[in-house]
Each structure stands twice: as structure tokens, then as C-alpha cells.
Automatic annotation (TrEMBL):
InterPro entries: Integrase_dom_put. This is Integrase core domain-containing protein. Residues 151-330 form the Integrase core domain. Keywords: Signal. Residues 1-23 form the signal peptide. The keyword Signal applies. PANTHER family: CLR5 DOMAIN-CONTAINING PROTEIN, EXPRESSED PROTEIN. It comes from the Eukaryota. It comes from Exaiptasia diaphana (Tropical sea anemone).
Amino acid sequence: MALCYFIAAVAAVFINILAAVDALPSAILASNMQIDDVIREYFNAGYEYSNIVSLLLAYHGIRISISTLKRFLRKKKMRRRNVEISDVAIRRAIQTELNGPGSLLGYRGMWNKLRQDYGVNVARDKVMKILKEMDPTGTEMRKSNCLKRRVYRNKGPNYAWHVDGYDKLRPYGFDIHGCIDGYSRRIMWLEVGPTNKNPAVICGYYLKCVQHIGGCPQILRTDPGSENTLIAALQCTFRRNSTDQFAGDASHRYGKSVFNQRIEAWWSVLKKNYSGWWIETLKDLVEFGALDIGNDFHINCLRFCLMDIIQDELNRFVNCWNNHTIRPSKRAECPHGKPNILYLLPHENGTHDFKTVVSQDDIVWANSICKDNISKTEERSDIFFENVLQREGKHLPCNWNEAIELYLFLVG
């Protein structure tokens, strides 16, 4: 039955195209984690005590009171106020970030980054002061006015997902693809690969997320590109038995990228905070004559050296974003707060999860029509470069500097 509906949905997708012409926190997923580690991760993410207690009950089956939680935190010496951390340690962490994509972060983003990635809990004003001293030029450059946008409305988590590709790094061999939950602004996936134009690759991102959360949204919104044919058909297939107004074919919507408001707005956040730094770094390689974007060997070398580094940076950025606090906005009828909390605890804002449960049989069947995000040609390229590293006694890079050095060695 699913196959028949899927075939019909694929046909409908192509007709619509012609007419129209992207994590629970890792602690939630790791059931074998010690409760100490789970609480520490929630604490470092900046969650309020009431949120931590609710998450422990909802996702771990652990019932404790706020007073018990406070006693635990005191015992572990985990504090958010009056924490004695030397300015030297703070400056060292900030300098580490300023040496990479973190140089684009404002003081709020830097404060959030320090708390989550370095376990440094200090006053935000102190971070602002130190950052202004260490990066006065960047501080001035980040001062800009807010963009004017239309009012956005969304009923709750998994009511609508917005999907799109990010092509700013395509000239250098990297395509980014993402999805954002419209209500909570939680990033559902953010992946980098050699292409975001292959329908099977995009389908793989979507299915990985659907399997991860156990369901799909009521509405999936994409642009009318051919790369979205499979996920559009699968979305409609997964909701074929639903009884609401967005059942079946009505559960997918096409629209131009400029009108896919949620994800388009988020791409500007990514560029401002991270990808802008990547673009400038890769442009420098071109200007210095070390990178020829028309040379397939250069592009394959760059992918081998940088792909995992970029994905790791994206994962870190998503984690920071999903745990940062969104301020109230007059341009959206959605609550403010942390995306993960808005997504995981919707009842605290008077709404509920709009997720449509997808059976394991449907997921297994759907996976059979998708493929991994790497071709046989890329597999052979990776094997070649790995053999070179083994022969030369070198290792895979762990950071941007090592990745660039390895690239220069391979093409030199």
C-alpha cells in the first residue's frame, strides 16, 4: 500500500514542480550515560532547573525534585554564579575561538560557546568586555540593524519543517543542507557533503531525522527543485493515513527559497557566525594560487582534508544554537526561549507535539530507495589519500590549521 501511494506521490511531486516553477541533545540519546553526565550536559547547556527536572522525567524516567537537583549540583560544585575562573583561562578560550570561525561570534554567541564547549560559566557582561578588548575591530563590524521580516506563525513543534540547501561553499566542493523546525527554531539537521542536488542524498538526511525522532512533521516545506522530489513524495506517503487537513498530498508545500522564511533567515545566522569565515579562508587559498577551483584534484583534496572538520564545526554550531536563548520578537507569533526546550517540552508553552508517527516498516522501505552521501568515485579518492597519508606517516587533521597544512602538502 505504501509503495502504491509513494508512486502516486512521486507523480504528484513532478506535477507540483512543473506548476511551482537539517538533535535531541546527545544526553537524551545515550541511554547508557550516567545520570551525573546527563545532568552535567543539561546544566552546561544553560537549562533552568525546572527544565532539567522535566527532561529527566520525560526522557529518562527519573523523578527528582528541584531541591534534590540543587543538592546534587552543590555536591558536584556546579555553579552558575560567583564562579572563580581566572581571566587568563577566559582569554585563552576566547583566543582559541578568535583563531577560527568563532571570530565571527558576537558576545552573546561567545558567552554561549564558552559555557557549552569549555564549561566556562562567567557573567555575560564580562565576556562582552574581554571580547571588546581582544577583538575591537570585529566588535565594531558586528554592529548592524535588524532586517525587517513578515510575521511568522506556527502552532507547535513538528507542525512545519523548513528545508533548503546552502550553496555559498559550492565553488570549493562543499554543499550544505539543513532543516529547521518552524515553531521552536530547532535545527533538525545540518549536513555537509559533495552535493545537495541529489534527491537520494537529501532523502537520506530526511529519513535519518525521521528515524531519529520517530516521526515526520505535519507540513514539510521545500523549494521546487528536483532534488526535493523524493522527500516530498515520502512526506506525503508517511502521512497518507492521517485525518487532519494536511493529510497525504497536502502535507508538502513548494515555495521559492526567498519565501521559505525560517530557513532562509537562519542561513544568514550561519554566514554571520561561521560560514563567512570559511568562505574568506578558502578565497585566500585561491588568491594565493594554492587552490584552483576548476581542478578536480584540488577539490577532491580539499574535500578529503576539510569535510569532517566542517561537519564537526556544523555540529558544534547546531548544539550552541539549539541551546541558546531566543529573545522575544515582534515579527513572530512563537514563544521565546531555548530551541531544545521549546521543542522537547511544548506543554510548558500551552501547545503539543504535532509529530506524525512513522512505522519502522515504512522507514526500512524508504531507506531502500536512498543511498549514502558518498559515491564510488569519492570512496576511491578517499582510499587514495588515506594510502598517501599512511605512506608519508601523516594523520588525519584535527582542526582547521592541520587541515589546510595537509591540503597544501597533498597538492604541493
